[in-house]
């Protein structure tokens, strides 16, 4: 990791692995307030050919789900390509992806 400051901006670099994966440097995680298992978003700017990383907050869009809605969601695991989930929170997180 390399860090280069220019005025109020800081460039932090990180290597790309053989699997094209990047580990967010601790300095970046702390700056954005990202904890393990949280979501990040990538904003692609075509004009400047750049990418911005931001923390993404996952929240339910319309409050609580009814028992009927939860049952339907849990039944999805029996359909082709379906998955099983241990908790409703992991199910909802998967649906947001």
Features:
alpha+beta, Pemi-like Protein 1, Chain: D, two-stranded antiparallel sheet, 97 residues, two-stranded antiparallel ribbon
Biggest sheet: strands side by side, in what order? Answer: 1-2
Distance between the termini: 29 Å
**Biggest sheet statistics:** 2 strands, antiparallel
The number of helical runs is 3
Rounded mean pLDDT is 83
Give the CATH level 1 class of the largest domain. Answer: Mainly Beta
| Poorly predicted spans | none
Q: Could you spell the SSE succession in H and E letters?
A: EEHEEHH
Shape: elongated
What would your notes on this structure say?
The protein is of the alpha+beta class and 97 residues long. It folds into 2 domains: 2-56, Pemi-like Protein 1, Chain: D (Ribbon), CATH 2.10.260.10; 67-96, no CATH class. Helices cover 26% and strands 25% of the residues. The protein has helices spanning 26-32, 67-75, 88-96, and strands spanning 2-6, 9-13, 39-45, 50-56. The strands form 2 sheets. Strands 1-2 form a two-stranded antiparallel sheet. It has a two-stranded antiparallel ribbon with strand order 3-4. It is elongated. The model has no long low-confidence stretch (mean pLDDT 83).
